[in-house]
Amino acid sequence: MSARIELSDAMFGAKETVLVTAGDITVSTFRYGSGIAALRVVSDRCALIILPFKGQQIWRAAFDGVDVTMGSMFEEPVDTQAYLETYGAFFIHCGMTAMGGPSPDDTHPLHGEMPNARFQTAYLLVEDGAVTLGGTYQHRVAFTVHYLATSEVTVRTGVAACDVRLQVENRRTASMDLMYLGHANFRPQDGGELIYSAPYTAGAVRVRTSVPSHISVPDGYMDFIKALVDEPSLHHVLRADLAFDPEIVFSIDMAVDGDGWAHAMQRHTDGAADYISYDGRVCPVAGRWICRTDDQQGLGIAFPATAGVEGYLAEKAKGNLVPVPGGGVWEIAMEMGRLRADEAVQMARRIDRIAGR
Predict the structure, then answer these.
(1) What is the β-pairing status of strands 2-7 and 121-127?
(2) Of the candidates 138, 114, 19, which has an alpha carbon nearest to the alpha carbon of residue 57?
(3) Does residue 327 have a pLDDT over 70?
(4) Which among 28, 135, 144, 173 has most CB atoms closer than 10 A?
(5) Rounded alpha-carbon distances, angstroms, from residue 5 to 38, 48, 71, 123, 228
(6) DSSP category for residue 11
(7) What strands, in cross-sheet order, belong to the sheet with 2-7?
(8) CB of 208 within 8 A of CB of 250?
(9) How far apart are CA 303 and CA 234, in angstroms?
């Protein structure tokens, strides 16, 4: 069976309604009290809530019955374009004309226009054993930029993970400078061990020492930052006493496997693990974000990124913008989910081989 269903805002009501069932996968529609349309996709091993018209965010994610989404102060999405005023999703596309925290001289919003972009179209692709939510967002600024972003999230029967893909087509004849970050926010666990395909050296794992304007830091915070500069492995086990308050951010040079993919995971004390894998050829920098406060618990194990997070002007000065020629296409593929204990052992061995350990 193969079918395509075009979605419209009118299909989402206050009462949750089953839209389609395909084998072990059920898709239903509902609307949050804030008015945001939401799609629930449930398979035998995966349960996602996706916002089809709001950045195509994955608002909530659970794999094998375990909610892996970051803890936040937002119980539901808010109808706003302001990044920090509706912050709590499992996955967010960031970019595309800019990304990161803007400097005083930058003019772009935090993490660019994509996080809460109003997608003009959304659709479902229903196949045997798989359902894909897709959609398009067309961004146009006269004399400046015109691109079409196509996002897709796929859930498959028997798999405790989802595939995420993004394609960006430059619709102008002039070249477009692109920045991207895939903001996948897992929940950190006491004793969680971070294992990832990069050399565990200060040169390859760099902690951000600057403090963004929207962050205030407590006593002792900068001492921990200074220690991490010389010895990044100090954060590899997430002890409860470590000062991830308000946040700590890294840029990591990931090594890739024979297919060009990078891999990272948080292994829990029971042996199971959260993981993310992605095409590291198009996103050569991995971002890492750890936040453990009273009202936020977030872990970006490895954000696929084209650049660091210091904002457009700083990353341009470093030569980190990606030129997309007129009529050209840029795309990224990712997979994120949960590994059973035996699968986590195999992934850890694979990661160590890639990193040369």
Answers:
(1) antiparallel
(2) 114
(3) yes
(4) 135
(5) 15, 18, 33, 6, 49
(6) G
(7) 2-7, 121-127, 130-141, 145-156, 161-170, 329-339, 273-279, 261-267, 193-196
(8) yes
(9) 20
What integer is the mean pLDDT of 248-256?
95
Distance of CA 245 to the CA centre of its chain: 21
Sketch out the chain's domains with CATH numbers: 2-355 (2.70.98.10)
Provide the β-strand partners of residue 170. 147
Mean pLDDT of the chain: 95
- Grouping H, G, I as helix, E, B as strand and the rest as coil, residue 350 is helix
The structure tokens listed for 352 are 């160590």
> If 0-12 CB within 10 Å is exposed, 13-18 middle and 19+ buried, where does residue 178 land?
buried
Contacts of 344 (CB under 8 A, 6+ apart): 265, 267, 271, 272, 273, 275
* Signed CA dihedral, 289, 290, 294, 295: sign only: positive
Separation CA 78–CA 82 (nearest Å): 9
The DSSP bridge pattern shows strands 261-267 and 297-305 to be unpaired
In angstroms, rounded to a whole number, what is the distance separating the alpha carbons of residues 220 and 245?
10
Within the chain, residue ranges assigned H as helices are: 221-230, 312-317, 341-355
pLDDT of residue 215: 66
Q: Which residue has the tokens 């902690």?
A: 207
| pLDDT at residue number 118 | 98
Which residue in this structure is represented by tokens 């991207």? 180
DSSP conformation class of 191: T
Per-residue burial over 35-71, b = 16 or more CB atoms within 10 Å of its CB, e = otherwise? ebbbbbbbbebbbbbbbbbbbbbbbbbbbeeeebbbb
pLDDT (tens digit per residue) in 330-354:
999 999 999 999 999 999 999 999 9
pLDDT band with cut points at 50, 70 and 90 for residue 220: confident
